[in-house]
Amino acid sequence: MKNMTLENIARACGGIYYGPEEKRKEEVEGISIDSRKIEKKWLFVATKGQRVDGHSFIPDVLKKGALCVVSEQKPEADNVACIFVEDSFKALKDIAEFYRNQMKLPIIGITGSVGKTSTKEMIAAVVSEKYNTLKTEGNFNNEVGVPLTIFRIREEHQAAVVEMGISDFGEMHRLSRIVKPDLCVITNIGQCHLENLGDRDGVLRAKTEIFDYMKEDAPAILNGDDDKLSEWKEKREGLTYFSIRQEENRQAKIFATHIGGHGIFGTDCTIHTPAGCIKVHIPIPGEHMVNNALAATAVGLKLSLSLEEIKRGIEKVEALEGRSHLIITEQYTILDDCYNANPVSMKAALNLLGNTRGRRCAIIGSMFELGEKEKELHKEIGSYGVEKQLDVIVAIGELGRYIYEGALERKKEGSFPTELFYFETVEAFLNACQDILKRKDALLIKASHGMNFQVIVEKLRCCAS
Q: How do 267-273 and 332-336 pair as beta strands?
C-alpha cells in the first residue's frame, strides 16, 4: 500500500509507535480488523466490539506475520511493532482518510434511504466496462465498513464505487471526510432511521452531509422523482437529475421511456441522454432498477463511457442474495428481498409481486427504526398489500402484528379476497408454512434484517429442491 509506512500511519492517527526502529519505514500490504483475514506484512487494528475484544487476537496475528498492530494497550514486548492509540475505531478512520488522500482514481459515493446496494451494483457493473473498478462488498457501508473498503483499493484500480450508509446526524459528515467522493449519487429520501432523524427533512439533511467534503464543482446525481431531492438546490450548482417520469420532471436530462415490465424477470426500457438513446434490458426485477440504470448511465457519462459500454454494463448486472434475488425451483418462485425493509422498499416489492402471474404470497415482517409512527406505517403496508389484491399475506414479528391488523381492516372495508395470517416468530411460520403455501406459488420474502428472514429463504429453497 503506497506510502503506508508505519511511521506515516502512526502520524496519521496520532498514535505512538513502539517497536523495532528498522520497521518504521516498512509499508503494510493490507489492513484489517478481522484477525482471520490478516496476512504477512499486514496491519491489524485491534478494536473492542460488543462481543469480542480484538486485543485478545494480537498474539495470533503476530504468528501469522502481521507487520504491526494498532492497539489501545501498550505492548509488553520490545520486539513487537505496535502503534498505541486511545481509540482504535477513530484510528481506523484517520488511517483510511490518510490513505484516500493519496489516491488519484475517481471515487463514486452512493447514498440514499433505499436502494443503495442495488444502485452500487448497477453503477459498478457499468463503470467496470471501461475501468478496473473496486466496489463495496456486502454491508460494509458504515463508519467501520467504509474505511475497510478504502483499504482494499490498490494501484491497479482505476475507479471505486463506495456505498455510504448512516442512521444519525454527523455520520455522513464523517464518512464524507474519509471518502471525499469525486462524484455522488443520492437514490432517494425515504422513511428510514426516523428514531434518530425525525422525519424526511431530517433524512435529507443527514444524507446531504455527503457534500461536506466534496469539491464545489464535483458532480452530484440525484433522483428527480423524489420530491425532497428534486426541490433541493442548497449550496450546489450543476446537479444532474434522472427520472422515470420525465413528463413531470423536465429538469431531468437522463430519463426512461417505453418501460415494459417482464415481472420478476426484469424490465425493458429506452434510456434518453444528452448523448443519445439506448434500449436496454435490465435483468433484475422492479421499477426501482430502472432508476438504478438511469443513475448508472449518468455516472457512466460523467466518466466518459460510451452508450454501448453503458448498455453492456446494465445488461450484465446481477442481483445479490437478499436484494431482489430471484430463486426459481420446482416448488416455488421466490423473490428473496429479505436483507432489509422500510415502507418505501416494501411497497415497491409488493408492487412487483402484484404484477406476477399465479398465486401471489407476501411473507413480510417487522420494519425497524421507524420511530413514533411505526404502528401506523406497518398498518399502511398491510392495507397496501390487500389493495394490490395479493392472494396471501403472511405477517410475522412483533411489529408484523400491525401489518396484519392493517390488512384485516382494509379487507373488511372492501371485501377483498386476500387470505391473511399472522405469526409471532419465524419459527412459528415455518412450522405452519406447508399448510399455507401451494406448489407454483410466487413468494415475496421481505423484512428488516434483524428479523432473520434469510432462514425462511433457505428453508423454502431446501424444501423445494
A: unpaired
